[in-house]
Every structure is written in C-alpha cells, then in structure tokens.
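Sample A.
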Amino acid sequence: MTTAGQLRVGARLVAGGIRDLTVDLQRPSITRLFIGQLPDVVIKTVPYLFTLCAHAQRAAAQAAVNAALSETPRPPEAAELWVEMLHENLWRLLLDWPVAVGLPPAREAFVAWRARRQEADCADLTRALLDETLHPLAAACMARLGEAGGAVASHPAAGASLDPAAWLAYWCGEADSLPALPVLGSVLAAYRARLVEIEAAVAGLAAGEPFPIARAGTGGWGVGQTLTARGRLSHAVHVVDGKVARYQVQAPTDGYFADAVPLTALLANRRFVGLDQARQALDQAILALDPCLPYTLEVHDA
C-alpha cells in the first residue's frame, strides 16, 4: 500500500453483464499523526503527507485552522492552485484518457507543458496546448466514448460546490451524514464536463481570479474546503487548548469509492461481448470517478 492507500475493484462477467461488482478502498490513518500537534505544524506538514494536489491540501488545512481559531485567513497564492488543477486535468486528458479508449497519449506535449508550467505565461502556454493538442485529441476520445452512449451528467469537480457549514454540522455531530456527492450519469458526460472544467481553470488563471476556498467554524471546530480536479476537498479540525485533538480529511475518492454504487450506476444496462471489452469499460468508469491513488482491477468470466 502507498501512503495514499490502495483501491481494489473486482467484478464478474455474467451473460454479457457486469455482476458482483466490489470496491475495496484502504486508506492509511495519516491524520493520527496530527493529534497533539500545534495547528501551524499541521498546516506545514499536510503538503508533505498529501503530496497529490499539495497546494489544495494546504489551502484546505489553512482554512480549517483559521475557522477553528476565528483567525483572519491569509489568501493563498491563487496561481499555484489554478496551475495545480490544470496539471491534474491535463494529466488525465492527455495521458490517461487516450489510453483508456485505445488511442496514443500526447506525452511529449504534456511533458513540454509541465516543464514550463511555473512560468509567467502559463495561461498562454496552456491555451496553445488546448487549441493545438487537446481539442483534436478530445474529439477522437469522445467519438470512441460516444459508442457507449449515456445521459448528460457532470464530472465530480464540475458539479461540486463548497458547503463548509454542512460539513461542520456533521463534524460537530449535529448532522447524521455528509452532504451528497454530485452524481455522474455516464462516462462520456464526465469526460465532456472535464473539458469544460479545464477551460474554466485556464480562464481563472489568465484573469487572476481567486481560487475557490471556503471555511466555517466555531469554538475550536473548523472546516476548510477547496476544489481539486477530482472534486471537493474538505479538511476538518478540532483544536483544544491550542493543540489538535481531532483531524479528518475527506477527499472525493473517499466518497466515490466508499462502495460500489457509483461504479454500478455508470455501468448500468451495459452489455459486453467479452472480458476485454468489460475490463475496458470498467477502467473507463473508474477513470471517470478519478481515484487519487493506484488501483487494481480484476474481471472474471463466470
């Protein structure tokens, strides 16, 4: 298991349909390391322990602590967060999605952009990459995904909204469950919405817009939220006598792979001629939900 955890997905192919779909998500208890620590120490440590989307992780941790301690938040560097979101989206759209539909990835174009993403003209570089490379590749990917059909829906990040007050109510024991995650209706729609999302990120970077961050807190309890390429990221903290007594992180992966329901919905009523086709469809559905950790997939013919 990596520091991010491990995801196992299994299924059987029965009479052309997916049956007995199982999802096993294992996460290490990293946040236990924060108990008894000073809040500032936790904020500084978070990006080193949660290295994927590290800027977003730090921003959410900072917002949670500020809310718990009734502190005036210090605005994070918005450009870093926009570029981080672009990086994660481009990784998926240029490298992972083409392979998932049987096309070659645009590896050289992605590597060239990645090497220059910290430059001042990143917005212009990204716009050129989208126009020259991503758009033609996306058209080819959608043509292949379109063969499977599917209703219009939203990608998790595109449909996610920040609602720290609702999360705070759950964190403080005033609500029985967390707010529901956005529902995906099809793999194709998730792909389309991701294209919309990356356009919004480029526009936000070019215009110097603040990155979406929200917080809520009272009496030592605090929740900080921000968006990532995968959806809404939440950090929750309880500070007692100046030290962290409890801490929790809720990433989109934790919700979408808590059970097999979201994957099952994406594959409902799909029929497959053999194991290879079924395995490819499952890979695509997993990619649509976009786990932030490695996964293994086993599909057996009944």
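Sample B.
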Amino acid sequence: RALAQLIDASVRQKVDASATGPDGLFYKGQLLRLIAWLRSLGKLNHPGDFQAVASGTRAIFEGAVDLTLLHFAPTTYPTAKLDAWEESAKLKHCESVSRFLAEHDREPSESERTMLRYIADGKTRIQQLRETWWPARDRAAKHPSRWTGRTLSEDATAADEQLPREFVEFYTLRYPQICWNVHGSGVSGIANVSEAAFPGIGGLAYADAGHYEFVTIEVIAKHLECLSAESLAEIK
C-alpha cells in the first residue's frame, strides 16, 4: 500500500507525461498493470489469501524479467517480438477452439465466431511472424511457450546480466515454492506447515513482490527517463 501511494504521488504523472509513441505507451501499460496488482495485493490481508498473493508475486517477477530484457537489450529483445508472441498466442488458442468445435460438431457461439474470424483474417500474417521471430529448421515455426523462445530460467540469467537484481537467485530459491502455492493440484507448499507459521507463506511472497515491484518501476523510469537516480533512491 505504501508503494502504491508512492507511485500515485511520485511516479505515475511523470510516466504519463513521458510515455509517447507506441514504445512509451507499452511501458506505461506495464506500470498500469503493476498498479492493478498493487491494488489487488493491498486487499489480500488474511493468511488464507496466500494463493492470490503468490499469483501476484509470480506475475510481477515475470514482468520484471521481461521489462529488463526489453529495455537493456532492445536489439535482441524488441517489443515487436513480444507483440508478435501475443498475436501468436491468440492464434494458437483460436485454433484450439476451432478444433474443439469441429470434433464435437458444435455450432460456435458469438464469441467463438470472433475467434474463427481471427484465424481467417490473421493466420497467414501471424505464421509469417512466427517464421521471423522463432524460425525452426526443417519445419514450420510454432508458437513458443515464452516470447523470447527460451525458458524463464534462461531469461532470468539474461536479465541478471543486464541488471543484477537477484533474478537468478529468486528463480532458483523461491520461484518453485511460489508456483506450488499457485497451482491447484495437491497441497505442495502448505503440507506440514503449522498454523503459527502459515501467515509466513503470504508474508514471504509479499516481500518478494515488493522487491520486483520496485525493479519494475526502476526499469520503466530508466526507459522513459522520467525519474532521477535521486528520486528512485528516495522511493526505494
């Protein structure tokens, strides 16, 4: 909540004034997503909210990794590649919907017809984007699980090389535990945890979120050149 107040008082107006053009609007959009997570996390004040807290922490960490790569290595990781991945992901989903409808001989709903039109209108163009960004030898390019075409572990390593902010350390030591508390299968992450220690599950995730919330602000401010080093230090 304190960080949310700092963003409203010291960051958001400066980002709004500096975010021009598609590139600037992209970084402004990332700040707005962070603000939304902060507002959600600020409402989760019960130990039983640990699953939602962990989900927010994971999203904030992954976003911080992506922004670090996008800002510090724009030639290797341009925003156009991330945009292409988003369109590719939509196409993959729409094609899954199309196959399901065909296999079950079912008439599409209005929203499903929109997905079928997305295939008809964009498949050729999006396949060309896949060939451009994630080419495959001896076969057509497919949709990758991450926009970089690599694993999150590899991306965390690359992010640390650009901006040392404990990306690899978090991914190695904490990320699996965070995922255990997000996934719905089984009771990994909470089994054999005493009642007295249980609030610590969410508490640790809050601390992790706070760290990468600030990293996100730091990278956005660097990219848009809208906050001085002194201002960032004061916020931190």
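B remarks: The CA atoms of residues 47 and 196 lie 10 Å apart. The mean pLDDT is 93.
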